[in-house]
Structures are given as structure tokens and as C-alpha cells.
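Give me the fold.
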Amino acid sequence: MERFVFLTVDGLAHGAIYAAFALALVLIWRGTRVVNFAQGAMAVAAAYIAYSVVQATGNYWVGALAAIGAGVVLGVAVERGVMRFVAHTAPLSAIVVALGLSLLIAAILGIVYGVDQRPFPVPFSQTPFTIGDYSVFSPFTLFTFAVVAAIVVGIAVLFTRTSIGLRMRAAAFAPETSRLLGVNVSRVLTLGWALASVVGAIASLLIIPTAFLQPNAMDLVFVTAFTAAVIGGLDSPVGAVVGGLVLGLVLSYTSGYLGSNVTSLAVLVLLVIVLLLRPGGLFTMRQARRV
């Protein structure tokens, strides 16, 4: 029983981390209908900015604000300087360009900061609480859960309760019609990229402290988070969270009971099952698919 509790707690903790980054992918998809394969590299770049500011000021929260600001700048720069010229052409163009951009950002970070692994500061302890004989969530993990919940609520409110969210979805689904209705599609798409980049930057502040900071720190996390977003449904923030938590539990139980060498196979089996039963993901909204 003790082993099961440990694996469950560990799985939920890692699942929350995957969910945080999956939310960034969901936001960019809902706002622009593009899967940003450079999201991981952009998030690492924001994390390096935060690291530099924390080193200079000694204040984590100032570094976090710097990361959020860097996220805004990166999102706007990538959309205005690169993606707006390819996002609405051939379907694979945005993917290829984003992959190239990811390699470019990682190379620049390696040149500027080097490739050494660096410990990343945290605002709260990562030592888990102990209840009886069981170790449960640490303060930092609880902080991660709270931030992920806040992001989910924020995205839900944005897209269902605000005119900006409605414009973002309209511009993503039907840009020409939106222009005829007076929507500034260009500005709305830029806003979508900026918001997604901010969420990615916040996610990096939650993810990287569990490992180390280096230029490719988010590569494997991106793959796992993308899988979580697909499982939950790329249109659903709630689905991203559920997909991340489920994926975290699957990885934890598989690694704990069957060995780490079969975890990739378990994730593949889960993904195939979900895509066979619900190709759009567990929480895909039907109305989004009919547009």
C-alpha cells in the first residue's frame, strides 16, 4: 500500500507538470489553430531570463515577472517575425518552421549560457509533507497545482466569457469571415501567441526546478505534454489537465510496477486507445469540430 501511495502522489505531481505545459499548447491551438513545436525552446528561453534576473537580484518573484515579460516579447516576436508568414499556407509549413525555430533558439541559448546543467531556484520547499508513514505533496507541488488550476480557470473564462476570447476563436477558425465582421485578425493572432508564450513561460518555472536548466531542458517535456494535450483534446483546457494527470499516473505506475523500460510503450498504448475511441481527444468539444 505504501508503494501505491508513493506512486500515486509521484504520478500526480509529475502529471501536474505535464498539464501546465499542455495548457500552453491548448491555448495556442485554440487561439491560432497552430501547434507550436517551438513552444519548448521559447519556454526555456524565458526560464533563462528568469534565472539571470534571480541571479542578479536574489528575488525569485522578480525573476518570475521577468519570465512572463520575456514570454510576451517572445510570443509577439515569433508571430510577427516568422509565423504569420507561414501559419496559413501548407499545413506542414508551420510545423517545419517551428522546428527550425526551436533548434535556432536552443543554439543561441547554448552560445550565450553554455550547455551546463544549472539548478533552478524555487519559491517553496520541495521536501514532501509526511502524514503518518506516507510522504505526500511538497509545498512546491501544491503551488504547482494551484497555478495550473488558476491557468485553467483563466483560459476558460477568456474563451467563454470575454469578447477577446470570442474574437480569438473566430479569427482562428474563420479569419476571412472575421475580417468582414470587423475583427482585427492580425492583432488577435498576435495576442494569442503572446498569451500562449506567457503560459509556456510560467510552465517552465514549474517544470525546470524538478530537473535542471539547460538549452534542451523542455524537449522531452514537450513530447509528453503534447501527448497529454492530444489525449485530453487540443481544444480543452480541462482535457489538457486531465490528460496530464492521467499520463503522469500511467508513467508512474508503469515505471514502479513494470520497470522504466516499458514506460514509452505504455504511453503509446494509451495514446492509440484514446485516438481509436475518441480521435479528437477525451474532452473535445463537438461544436469546435463542426466549424
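Residues 2-117+137-290 form a domain with the ABC transporter involved in vitamin B12 uptake, BtuC fold (CATH 1.10.3470).
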